[in-house]
Amino acid sequence: MAAATWRPPSTIRSAPTHWPRTAWPRCCAATQFSIAIAVIVAILSTSIGVVLGAIAGFFRGWVDSMISRFIDLVLVIPAIVLVGVLSRNSFGSSATNGGGGGNWYIIALFLGLTAGPASPG
User: Fold this and answer.
1) Domains identified in the chain, total number
2) Residue 119's closest CA among 64, 69, 48?
3) Does residue 13 sit within a domain?
4) What is the mean pLDDT of the chain?
5) By CB neighbour count within 10 A (0-12 exposed, 13-18 middle, 19+ buried), where does 118 fall?
6) Nearest to residue 75, comparing CAs of 67, 86, 87, 85?
7) Is 46 domain-assigned?
8) How many CB atoms lie within 10 A of CB 56?
9) How confident is the model over 60-96, as pLDDT tens digits?
């Protein structure tokens, strides 16, 4: 039986591209986009929730009732399905497949708009 020969580790660690990158830089790059989307969604949804709550509380009556019915309508539609459909149909496949470039803010905008009226306020 022949002795097993050991080779030194490769510099390319499961990178599907030609660039020799490890998992850590990819995770850091993905985290930047995730945090940016989370911040935009949080600010946008909080702003929409506060404005709608303030309008409903100030005017009361039928205005409060209409805003409440609108929020009930938004809560019935699953937000993640709506975001997927809107971003796919409005901006092509580049907004949803991750490789299309700078369209990540479109998904953040749609998430903020659909989460805003559902925010407690």
Assistant:
1) 1
2) 48
3) no
4) 75
5) middle
6) 67
7) yes
8) 19
9) 999 999 999 988 887 787 777 777 777 676 665 544 4
The model's pTM is 0.61
Which of 43, 32, 60 lies closest to 112 in space, CA to CA? 43
Range of the domain at 73: 26-115
Is residue 30 domain-resident? yes
**Burial class of residue 107, CB neighbours in 10 A (0-12, 13-18, 19+):** buried
How would DSSP label each residue in 38-101? HHHHHHHHHHHHHHHHHHHHHH-HHHHHHHHHHHHHHHHS-HHHHHHHHHHHHH-GGGTSS-SS
For the stretch 19-64, pLDDT in tens is 556 777 778 888 888 888 889 888 998 898 899 999 999 999 999 9
The whole-angstrom separation of Cα 117 and Cα 96 is 23
